[in-house]
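Internal tracking record. Fields below are filled automatically when a chain is submitted to the structure queue. Please do not edit lines marked as system-generated. If the sequence contains nonstandard residues, flag them in the REMARKS field before resubmitting.
Queue: standard
Priority: normal
Entity type: single polypeptide chain
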Amino acid sequence: MSLSVIPAYQPHLSPNIPKVVNNKEYEEFYSILTQINKNLIKGKIEEEFVRLCLEHKEKELVEVIEEENKEKEENKEKEENKEKEENNVNAAKKLNSGAKKRMSKTARRALRCNIGQKLKGESFRDFSNSLADSRLWQWFCLIDELAVIKPPSKSTLERYDKIVPDSIIEKVRDQLTRKAMESAPSEEEHPLGLVEPINIDRTFVDTSCLKANIHFPVDWVLLRDIVIRLIGIIVVIRKHKLFNRMSHPESFIKEINNLCIEMTHTRRKENAKQERKRILRKMKSIVNTVRDHGKRYRDLLDEDWRKTDLSKKEKDHLLRRLDKVLGLLPQAVKQAHERIIGGRQVLNKDKILSLHETEIHVIVRGKSGAEVEYGNTWVIAEQESGIIIYSKLIKDQAKADCHLLEPALETIAGTFGSYPGGVGCDRNFDSTDVRAYLLQKGIYNGVCPRDSKMLQERLKEETFCHYQTRRSQTEGRIGIIKNGFLDGKLRSKGFLHRELGVGWAVLAHNLWALARLAIAQRKALEREAKAA
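SYSTEM-GENERATED OUTPUT FOLLOWS
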């Protein structure tokens, strides 16, 4: 029996939601949330997510079984291996048949909790409190049971956030968009409640920087972070009764903090440059001492971890943390030496911006108040109704915008079966290759030209002016997702988790935008009927 077979969903008994009157904003939000709930069920978005989630869990289970088999098969005969493999598969089937209903329930609840958390724009802790307090959110997130309400904790909500990879969220989002593009069956209501389906005839593309949750990158502060992280791991190892001779661990943190404070005050002195060099040499001495302690404790943990109460996984986790910091330390010291003592520039591609976020980049924006930002480039494409049809967070240093348009349009064509009728972008996307590509694919070129004379000629076209007027709303769309659905700052750590956070935010945004569109279309139809 496969986990991907979706078990029948039995709704639980739940109390009615109290009726609230004389509050227009609540009534509007209630109607939107109700429409999102209908879209998840009637549009079979929830069902698709559960299916994909179960398939993902099944693959994970198979991988675990294969790893266990490899460990057990090292020094055994082939016949015994076959018997054990069959026994493991049978055990997995028994586990699957008993766990699939619980996994299905968890997947439904995780989907709705993630959507709700992004709609509220709250942290996991705050949304957990909202679930405990609000009957409306309890209903939407399927926790409004009659006897006892058990809202998920902040830790559970964080596990829900990482229940599937971003690729699965992207598949669910694409299915939602395809459903919105389909016409309703004859004499039946559209599965998403739309009066008129959406289309991708006009598409608008833009880029932005998704800033990482880090402090401003300063060389000597980076050295302080390294010392604090290494000392923190050493303290954990010492708590588990593994010791090596060293001064009191907290004394190193105190010393490095004092030197950082002293470094910030050097700019007020006449010989500021010499003072900065002197202080950095002291900091390098402390960093090298802590590095040596870190290496000794790493070897000690690797050899004698069985003398502690640590499990193998906990030991491996501590070793990975130590290896990561010790691996970055030489580059961080060299970077500070080159810039402060050597007075030489370090290329952006070679800089360490954060000890905790190593997959972010220096992105030159050239905007007022944001000349330079630190994070990852985010490419977004929306159709005319504001539904996002393409979203990609780029892990590596992104190329110029003009090189990002073609991959975006090719992905859109592969997902929806056709290219957009036209595309509107700012002047950063314009190039000779882009103009040739759009002409070849038969896509209307609404990209703002870099050449001023060409722009004056294009402004005489009414269609081009419409594309450029509408294009400005895409920047507002990015702001809505960043400040509304991501609460102004994406707190997830690591690129994969930031990518996952953006995926959930875009899915929640599309559900919200389609619900508002369906309500607006129905109201317009009612007004027309009354006027007739």
